[in-house]
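Retro notes (design track)

What went well: tokenization of the new backbones is finally stable.
What didn't: we kept losing track of which sequence belonged to which structure.
Fix going forward: every design gets posted as structure first, then sequence, in one message. First example under the new rule, 279 residues:
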């Protein structure tokens, strides 16, 4: 925030989501400061993150009073287990002028954040349903029902999510073509940890022989060089049948602290046209 000749001329303070009053201060090159207690009418403008804002008034003795306390400046802690991907994320942050706001850490999920808590937890984990006896690139291998890494994220979420925090993640898992097979498990988790969960299902895709997603999974596994397409397909089908899954459904999770409620939002069309997007 700033006041003076332009809205970004002088830094007045850092928002914390609570404080609403910031005195006008003039800082000089020799590090000296002077309170401005009698600013000229019309001479003060205010910005937050370099953007001119309204919703403030000029109080007695040159004090800027906000109608709503400015929020804490957003900072991002990104965790990546792959050092190459982490290096690319750092390069991307620098290229976009965000290196001072984005910290990239190499680690396995919450091991890299210790006791820190966050207002937003966002994840795009390995999420495809892949049997343990079938090779698949690790970036997509979500275990037999697609939820192996997602379960680990949910297990640690109550520790790291702030009281006002939101968690958002996407994934796929097995379904019967109408309902995800994990519903009971997710309801129990929500109630056990007093979390409010909305699971928005956007599509169901068949996993029978000839279906595009099953064939795509089988061909990708065969491309690893140690298994044939036919063998991979048979192992996928055997695994999915053991769960009672006939389809792969795509979903989004939205999680907040609350009373432990679980809501399923079914947005899927009878004939899916995409995976995570709905018209």
């Amino acid at each position: 925030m700033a006041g003076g000749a332009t809205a970004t001329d002088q830094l007045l303070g850092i928002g914390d989501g609570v404080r609403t009053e910031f005195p006008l201060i003039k800082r000089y090159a020799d590090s000296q400061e002077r309170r401005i207690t009698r600013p000229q009418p019309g001479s003060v403008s205010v910005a937050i993150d370099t953007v001119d804002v309204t919703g403030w008034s000029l109080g007695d003795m040159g004090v800027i009073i906000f109608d709503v306390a400015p929020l804490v400046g957003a900072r991002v802690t990104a965790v990546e287990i792959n050092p190459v991907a982490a290096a690319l994320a750092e390069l991307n942050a620098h290229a976009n002028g965000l290196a001072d706001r984005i910290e990239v850490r190499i680690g396995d999920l919450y091991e890299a954040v210790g006791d820190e808590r966050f207002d937003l937890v966002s994840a795009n984990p390995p999420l495809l349903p892949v049997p343990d006896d079938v090779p698949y690139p690790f970036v997509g291998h979500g275990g037999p029902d697609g939820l192996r890494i997602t379960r680990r994220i949910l297990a640690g979420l109550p520790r790291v999510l702030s009281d006002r925090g939101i968690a958002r993640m996407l994934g796929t898992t097995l379904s019967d073509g109408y309902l995800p097979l994990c519903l009971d498990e997710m309801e129990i988790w929500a109630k056990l940890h007093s979390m409010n969960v909305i699971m928005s299902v956007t599509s169901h895709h068949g996993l029978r022989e000839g279906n595009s997603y099953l064939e795509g999974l089988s061909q990708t596994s065969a491309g690893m060089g140690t298994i044939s397409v036919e063998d991979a397909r048979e192992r996928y089908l055997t695994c999915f049948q053991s769960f009672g899954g006939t389809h792969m459904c795509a979903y989004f999770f939205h999680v907040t602290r609350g009373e432990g409620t679980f809501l399923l939002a079914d947005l899927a069309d009878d004939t899916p046209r995409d995976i995570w997007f709905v018209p």
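Added context from the reviewer: The two ends are 41 Å apart (CA to CA).
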